[in-house]
Design brief:
This protein is an all-alpha fold. The protein contains three helices and no strands.
């Protein structure tokens, strides 16, 4: 029984690590899309509404990418 428990723990750790990696990748993809949309003329308020983020969060994402928002 202890071996089964250890295997289950190891599997759970792998599942959590994989989920965290997917979350980080999704955030990176969203940030990239936000920057692209902003550079194409989208306004900060519109991006915030569509992403369900605050305007300040959108500004932080843009600044982190080297883009100074208006």
């Amino acid at each position: 029984m202890p071996r089964a428990r250890e295997r289950a723990k190891a599997q759970a750790k792998r599942i959590v690590a994989d989920a965290r990696a997917r979350i980080e990748q999704a955030r990176a993809n969203l940030a990239e899309k936000i920057v692209t949309e902003y550079e194409s003329g989208a306004r900060v308020a519109e991006l915030a509404r569509r992403a369900d983020y605050s305007r300040e969060t959108i500004r932080r994402i843009l600044r982190a990418a080297g883009v100074e928002p208006d």
